[in-house]
Design goal:
It is a single chain. By secondary structure, the chain is of the alpha+beta class. The protein contains 5 helices and 16 strands. It has a single domain, classed as 2,3-Dihydroxybiphenyl 1,2-Dioxygenase, domain 1, CATH 3.10.180.10. The longest helix is centred in the C-terminal third of the chain and has 13 residues, at about 230-245. The protein binds zinc ion. Zinc ion (ZN) binds near residues 17, 225 and 271.
Length: about 325
């Protein structure tokens, strides 16, 4: 992501992190069926007996990163208010029939394609019921990643946006516009869209549909991270949050980026993460995701950590058209 001309300290989405119940099925779905690159295989820094798997474009660029904590056998969550209920990815114009066929071939539960804000999209769910959309976007200049099992002209470009499900619009709207540089951009049928710059990968939709409170479990999003340029812009955001009496964590070193966490008033856990240092800080760009990477402070426990994790692999031939 390049530095914007406007003064926004928030550049768009950085990553979305969700909970799942089976690491191998997770790899098969995101790297196999959706064709994203597994760019990092590491562990949950706060619970190192669980993987942290990252999928994205070739370099794992901010704005393309979908990540998971796969807790074996984790009970399913329930979608509802106070949650990020749908993560949307950008697909190129002319690719919708390809994706409909591909999803059917692999037995993925999906909707027919529909239209919203004049955009064509498909809603689908992964094995844990996590809500995903593929939205056709004609002006996304980002290069899609393809390992060869998906033709490049159909490949996912990265995030398009997210949907937050809330009890009320007002408090969440006030928070993201007042503190996180978003502006209202569109509204249709009880859905309001916000963005710091209007670009694919930087859109936040809010729906307030009166559904019950969500419960976290497999198939739920754990948190969403917004991207900021660097440590300095992150500190400015942190100061502003403190000024507005929002409870925010200290800056935490996540190895591939630096993070602060806080909750928006509707209950969704937000993070602001820096662009640097990036996913290739501890392995060669060409080998991303191939071996288990541990933070320096976990290296001394590598043997124990590896013993607790079941091996995962990708049999790409299973996922050809
Ligand atoms: Zn995160």
């Amino acid at each position: 992501m390049k530095k914007d001309n406007n003064s926004s300290k928030i550049l768009g989405l950085h990553h979305v992190t969700a909970l799942s119940s089976d690491a191998q099925k997770n790899v098969d779905f995101y790297a196999g069926i959706l064709g994203m690159r597994m760019v990092k295989k590491t562990v949950n820094f706060d619970a190192p007996d669980v993987y942290h798997l990252y999928y994205g474009d070739y370099l794992g660029s901010p704005g393309t990163l979908m990540t998971f904590f796969p807790y074996r056998g984790l009970e399913r969550g329930r979608k509802g208010t106070g949650q990020l209920t749908v993560t949307s990815f950008s697909i190129p114009e002319g690719s919708i029939d390809y994706w409909l066929k591909r999803l059917d071939k692999f037995g993925v539960s999906r909707s027919n394609h529909s239209k919203r804000f004049d955009e064509e999209f498909i809603y689908l769910e992964d094995d844990d019921g996590l809500g995903i959309e593929l939205i056709v976007c004609s002006d996304d200049e980002r290069e899609g990643f393809t390992r060869g099992n998906i033709p490049p002209e159909y490949a996912i470009r990265g995030f398009y946006g997210i949907t937050l499900c809330e009890q009320h619009f007002e408090r969440t709207e006030g928070f993201i516009t007042g503190l996180l540089d978003h502006k209202p951009v569109q509204e249709e049928n009880g859905r309001r869209r916000y963005s710091p710059n209007g670009k694919p990968g930087a859109l936040v939709d809010v729906v307030a549909d009166g559904s019950g409170t969500g419960r976290q479990g497999s198939g739920s999003v754990h948190h969403v991270a917004f991207a900021t340029h660097d440590d300095a812009s992150q500190l400015e955001i942190r100061e502003k949050l403190i000024e507005m009496r929002v409870h925010v964590t200290p800056v935490i070193d996540r190895q591939y980026f630096h993070s602060i966490y806080f909750r928006e008033p509707g209950g969704v856990l937000f993070e602001v993460a820096t662009l640097p240092p990036g996913m290739d800080i501890d392995e060669d760009a060409a080998r991303l995701g191939e071996s288990l990477k541990l933070a320096p402070w976990h290296e001394s426990k590598r043997e124990q950590i590896e013993k607790n994790l079941e091996p995962v692999s990708l049999d790409i031939d299973k996922f050809r058209d």
